[in-house]
């Protein structure tokens, strides 16, 4: 087992790299980390690492000094530089001093880092130690503890047996003394999972547990465990003479660091709930139940918050007559899009204030509204489920899967607007299902290379017949339609974002920036930069009126 040390003045970088890989599965163990070269030199004497992953720009002792001193005292250590994109001159100097290689710390891939580390250890002698067995034993102990916590929280049978087994293990938290439970859950998890934008679930859970354990055990006595598919708990003892306000502030700080880490490294938003003070394993189960209720009511809040426990009084969910389905049904039958949007906006505004209603009851009411729209549009041969929001989610899934009421609102109104534009662009005609599916696919996959043959196969048509049907319905060829959609999206991004031209080209699926600029000028009459400057000038003039 090769011993690894991480040195960087940014705690999120250190935590991110620690959680990037199941290190022990690849023959490595993270033995320690440090925030600068001075701390690193102290810990190197104690932990004797084989590999050091180090930043260069730190104080009081930077990475160059660290490498230089270790070259004399610890020549067996292999250094890998954690670099930034604008850092090449420094990297080159570090390599001259004896660093083995470098990686870009904010974008490094697990397989890339492992490859470099494997090469480093095979080129140097390294020093496997007799501590390997104890490392594995310690790791297995953590797995056993977390498994027992999960069983205790989710089972009523064999509870005494599980408790006895748990109490025989070394625990950081004394459950006979006052403690709190901080529960953490991943927001919009069902949506994220459908998109497939994150790593393997097992690896995600593993890395998040490790980050939480590393983070909370720095300044507290804490135990971390998973109790739901994507729910974690941190048990933390209240320090002697620590008041509850100071404790909540400390937990809020640690939660904020973890939240930033989840956002930066995994693209995930998380929310948290802090229980009341409790004691004993019975108190542990009660605290988890409290936090489940608190997190359920975050439906009315926003991502990234830590919510304290508050006793709430529930109210029965009853809609006033102006929001009955018959009103929406009439508006939908008449294709009164202004009326439908006004109805839904008013409904969401009304629901936003009903924070004593059960979120599931609100979802039920919204599903009824969706059913009214879907049934009415189906009578006109339109399928509203073909329309997808920016996350690739249709209206029914948005109501079921988004964590927050506000996100449901945004998605539902976005999808209604999509349907309105489709309806109006066809002069009130309803498109053939195959053409509607193809257009929906183009809107949500424009970053990809789009071929007629692949789209035709997706809608169960031959390429030639699909092209004929599409042109008959739209009046332009499929490729002309793709081109038009890409140019429209490019204009939107130039107006609404600060993305560079080459980044916008990538966003709309044209991977040659020069070709993109040529095509944009051909379509719009201005280069992308000229268009943006003209739009900004016009927006500034309008703001003065």
UniProtKB/TrEMBL annotation:
Molecular-function annotations in GO: DNA-binding transcription factor activity; sequence-specific DNA binding
Coiled-coil regions, chain positions: none
GO cellular component: cytoplasm
SMART domains: HTH_ARAC, REC
GO biological process, alphabetically ordered: phosphorelay signal transduction system
Magnesium in keyword set: no
Residues covered by the HTH araC/xylS-type domain: 436-534
PANTHER family: HISTIDINE KINASE-RELATED, TRANSCRIPTIONAL REGULATORY PROTEIN HPTR
Protein name: Stage 0 sporulation protein A homolog
């Amino acid at each position: 087992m090769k011993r690894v040390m991480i040195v960087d003045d940014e705690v999120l970088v250190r935590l991110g790299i620690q959680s990037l890989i199941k290190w022990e599965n690849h023959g490595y163990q993270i033995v320690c980390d440090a925030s600068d070269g001075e701390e690193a030199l102290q810990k190197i004497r104690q932990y004797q690492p084989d590999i050091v992953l180090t930043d260069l720009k730190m104080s009081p002792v930077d990475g160059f000094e660290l490498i230089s001193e270790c070259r004399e005292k610890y020549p067996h250590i292999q250094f890998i530089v954690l670099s930034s994109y604008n850092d090449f001159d420094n990297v080159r100097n570090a390599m001259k001093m004896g660093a083995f290689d470098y990686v870009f710390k904010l974008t490094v891939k697990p397989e890339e880092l492992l490859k470099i580390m494997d090469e480093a250890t095979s080129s140097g002698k390294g020093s496997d130690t007799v501590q390997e067995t104890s490392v594995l034993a310690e790791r297995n102990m953590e797995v056993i503890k977390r498994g027992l916590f999960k069983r205790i929280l989710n089972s009523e049978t064999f509870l005494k047996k599980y408790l006895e087994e748990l109490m025989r293990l070394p625990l950081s938290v004394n459950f006979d003394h006052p403690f709190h439970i901080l529960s953490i859950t991943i927001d919009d998890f069902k949506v994220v999972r459908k998109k497939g934008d994150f790593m393997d679930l097992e690896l995600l859970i593993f890395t998040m547990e490790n980050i939480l354990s590393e983070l909370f055990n720095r300044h507290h006595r804490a135990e971390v465990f998973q109790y739901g598919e994507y729910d974690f708990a941190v048990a933390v003892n209240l320090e002697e003479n620590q008041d509850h306000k100071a404790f909540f502030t400390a937990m809020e700080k640690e939660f904020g660091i973890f939240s930033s880490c989840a956002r930066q490294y995994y693209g995930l938003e998380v929310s948290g709930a802090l229980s009341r003070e409790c004691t004993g394993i019975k108190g542990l189960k009660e605290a988890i139940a409290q936090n489940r209720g608190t997190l359920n009511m975050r439906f009315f809040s926003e991502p990234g918050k830590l919510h304290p426990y508050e006793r709430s009084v529930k109210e029965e969910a009853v809609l006033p007559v102006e929001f009955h389905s018959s009103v929406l049904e009439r508006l939908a039958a008449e294709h009164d899009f202004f009326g439908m949007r006004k109805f839904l906006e008013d409904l969401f505004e009304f629901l936003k204030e009903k924070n004593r209603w059960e979120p599931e009851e609100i979802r039920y009411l919204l599903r009824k509204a969706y059913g009214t729209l879907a049934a009415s549009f189906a009578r006109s041969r339109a399928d509203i489920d073909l329309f997808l929001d920016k996350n690739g989610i249709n209206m029914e899934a948005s109501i079921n899967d988004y964590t927050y009421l506000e996100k449901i609102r945004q998605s539902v109104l976005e999808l209604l607007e999509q349907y309105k534009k489709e309806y109006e662009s066809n002069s009130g005609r309803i498109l053939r299902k195959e053409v509607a599916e193809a257009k929906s696919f183009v809107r949500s996959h424009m970053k990809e290379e789009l071929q007629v043959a692949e789209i035709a196969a997706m809608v169960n048509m031959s390429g030639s017949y699909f092209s004929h049907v599409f042109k008959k319905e739209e009046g332009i060829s499929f490729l002309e339609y793709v081109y038009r959609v890409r140019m429209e999206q490019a204009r939107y991004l130039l107006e609404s974002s600060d993305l560079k031209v080459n980044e916008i080209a990538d966003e709309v699926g044209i991977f040659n920036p020069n070709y993109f600029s040529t095509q944009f000028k051909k379509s719009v009459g201005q280069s992308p930069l000229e268009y943006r400057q003209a739009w900004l000038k016009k927006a500034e003039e309008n703001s003065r009126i």
